[in-house]
């Protein structure tokens, strides 16, 4: 069969979703092992002279049960459960099949014990400690019942004294496997916790590295990176962008009159109102102290001027609650310039700074832009 046909068949059998494929691969392996066990059972029956009819009944039970599990997973029906692999159900079912096989193979029944261990190992990567112990207990009960029944029905093949020994072997083996599974489950749980903690720490570090703590705005480093990116984009796509330096007027006075905490509140209020006044694509960043920068990507001068004028007016209308000191009114001065192709960012920023100085010198609360060239 050609490779592509095999791949198509695999896709038909396992589907597209990676998580579902993993579950179905596991179930397919269990199915293959059960099918192999069925062949072995029929062979064993041939050697021991057991009932063929019962062996076929067992085959129908095992294959039918696993087919039902496969259908439940493949159809997506099992996704409603916490464990969509139905691990406990699969293991419980396989254990019951093993116990029924134990009742049929007579003198060859010792071969069932390693299979029981193998079945429980399927749960090692999935089961929680409680389920592992529960399944071990279930296996003990089912095997105990089968052993007792067979010792009564066929004492010549299943001598009661032998069955007691067999039961004791299981009673040692199963809790040990369950304990190992429980230990693995705890390790898995710890690893998952550590992964979550690491992801949280990484997100925190990213926020610290890129955000200004007081205002939550992008910090100087982040703004530098964003401007570098915008410069590259403007070179590639030949579009304009503008940069504005925004400085709160007489901020020192606010600190002096209302205290540093009120000054901080003003900075936060400015950041919030400033962001609301800008377009979603514009970036407002804290450049340092009471100085902010606005990056207006893909924007020509006329709309940039309108945007900065809107920002200035909305800030002038803002009143920041200063507690007993009443409400604080603030204004901003803005130096706005367009980036000229061929210039460096430093040159553009210096121009914006000079324009800001002009705005301050002209009386503050105004936007200064490059004279039209
Ligand atoms: N509350 C507070 N104040 C800050 C912060 N960063 C800088 N400042 C203060 O901002 C003030 C800036 O004062 P100046 O540079 O003299 O400018 P100004 O008073 O705004 O005057 P003009 O810019 O000329 O209008 C200083 O008093 C700084 O201490 C901050 O994070 N919180």
UniProtKB/TrEMBL annotation:
Q: For this protein, what is the EC number? A: 2.7.7.65
Q: What stretch or stretches form a coiled coil here?
A: 177-211
Provide this UniProt record's keywords sorted from A to Z. Answer: Coiled coil, Membrane, Transmembrane, Transmembrane helix
Ranges for domain GGDEF: 239-372
Listed transmembrane segments: 29-47, 53-73, 85-102, 108-125, 132-153, 165-185
Species annotation: Roseateles asaccharophilus
What CDD domains would the database entry show?
A: GGDEF
Q: What is this protein called?
A: diguanylate cyclase
Q: Which SUPFAM superfamilies match?
A: Nucleotide cyclase
Which reaction equations make up its catalytic activity? 2 GTP = 3',3'-c-di-GMP + 2 diphosphate
